């Protein structure tokens, strides 16, 4: 179990064992802190035939099937697109009827904010009148996007990012060495997001960005060549530049730093448009930071 969840995890199990756990749980908090991992671990405990106060037994038929990803009474509605009525009905369909192993059934919805309004209405009925021994675990990084009718029917668990010291310790224990608090902060203090980025071969690492950005500020690299190299990761790069400008402004209180920050905010908006030339947007941002006088000239024109 991720250490920042341990306390809440044990409380939830305690209520499960006392048969007091609500049938619909909402786990809400920033992306990259491990909510899905928590949901999966909870699902396994809820399904286990011999759970204890510490968690599942790991040896019963249910635990073995769960580990083999073939548990017939577990279903996760994983989706990156909107979750429409069909998908929700498919999930609910898995919960109707008797559980195949004769114990609990669990449905996990990893991105509950992607549920469309009509699909939410389909889900409401199940949330109001769940079939026997059924648990639904909803996850979201955007609880404010959920319909109030869904929110009000869930037992809500809100999580924030773990304390940096705890995250750094966990990262070290999980093979991610050499991480500084600044690097963690660059990933929104979300340790799983950072781990994924550092162990992911594709994409751009924060270190690569820092090396290139330092070279830019030192006049050893130009904005155009960096923008060409980094255009595929434009959103990530501009987010990092934005953090840099935000920090600079907090320290300096200079108008120029605030303007630089605003340039990043506008660039991130532009990058949301499909078909936008990312290299051009990124080049303008990098050029502004490296050569503020260019921006002034642009404004005068
Ligand atoms: Zn078990």
Which key terms come to mind for this protein?
5 strands, DNA-directed DNA polymerase activity, five-stranded parallel β-sheet, Rossmann fold, 301 residues, binds zinc ion, DNA-directed DNA polymerase, nucleotidyltransferase, P-loop_NTPase, EC 2.7.7.7, alpha/beta
Brief write-up:
The chain has helices at 6-17, 35-47, 61-67, 85-95, 117-128, 148-151, 164-173, 181-186, 191-199, 206-217, 223-230, 234-252, 255-271, 278-290, 292-300; strands at residues 24-28, 74-76, 105-109, 134-140, 155-158. By secondary structure, the chain is of the alpha/beta class.
**Can you give the mean pLDDT?**
90
Binned, the helix content reads 40-55%
For this structure, the quaternary state is: single chain
What's the CATH class of the largest domain, please?
Answer: Alpha Beta
Number of separate strands: 5
CATH architecture descriptor of the largest domain = 3-Layer(aba) Sandwich
Summed up, the helix count is 15
Write the H/E string, N to C: HEHHEHEHEHEHHHHHHHHH
- Main sheet? 5 strands, parallel
| Uncertain spans | none
CATH level 3 topology of the largest domain: Rossmann fold
Number of domains: 2
- In one word, what is the shape? elongated
Distance between the termini: 58 Å
List the topology elements.
Blueprint: H1 6-17, E1 24-28, H2 35-47, H3 61-67, E2 74-76, H4 85-95, E3 105-109, H5 117-128, E4 134-140, H6 148-151, E5 155-158, H7 164-173, H8 181-186, H9 191-199, H10 206-217, H11 223-230, H12 234-252, H13 255-271, H14 278-290, H15 292-300
Parallel strand pairs: 1-4, 1-5, 2-3, 3-4
This protein binds zinc ion (ZN).
């Amino acid at each position: 179990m991720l250490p920042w969840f341990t306390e809440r995890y044990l409380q939830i199990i305690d209520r499960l064992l006392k048969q007091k756990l609500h049938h619909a749980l909402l786990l809400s908090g920033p992306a990259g802190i491990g909510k899905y991992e928590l949901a999966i671990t909870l699902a396994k405990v809820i399904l286990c035939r011999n759970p204890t106060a510490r968690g599942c037994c790991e040896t019963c038929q249910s635990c073995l099937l769960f580990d083999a990803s073939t548990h017939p009474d577990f279903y996760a509605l994983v989706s990156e697109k909107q979750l429409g009525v069909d998908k929700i009905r498919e999930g609910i369909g898995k919960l109707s009827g008797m559980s195949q192993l004769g114990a609990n059934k669990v449905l996990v919805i990893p991105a509950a904010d992607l549920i469309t309004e009509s699909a939410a209405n389909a889900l409401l009925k199940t949330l109001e009148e769940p079939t026997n021994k059924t648990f639904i675990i909803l996850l979201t990084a955007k609880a404010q996007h959920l319909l109030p009718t869904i929110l009000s029917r869930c037992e809500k668990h809100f999580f924030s990012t773990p304390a940096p010291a705890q995250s750094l310790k966990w990262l070290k224990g999980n093979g991610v060495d050499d991480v500084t608090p600044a690097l963690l902060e660059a990933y929104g203090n979300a340790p799983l997001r950072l781990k994924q980025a550092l162990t992911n071969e594709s994409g751009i690492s924060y270190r690569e960005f820092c090396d290139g950005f330092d070279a830019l500020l030192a006049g050893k690299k130009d904005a155009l060549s960096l923008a060409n190299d980094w255009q595929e990761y434009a959103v990530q790069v501009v987010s990092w530049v934005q953090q840099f400008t935000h920090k600079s402004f907090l320290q300096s209180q200079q108008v120029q730093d605030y303007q630089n920050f605003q340039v990043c905010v506008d660039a991130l908006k532009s990058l949301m448009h499909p078909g936008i030339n990312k290299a051009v947007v990124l080049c303008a941002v990098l050029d502004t930071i490296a050569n503020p006088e260019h921006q002034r000239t642009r404004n005068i024109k």
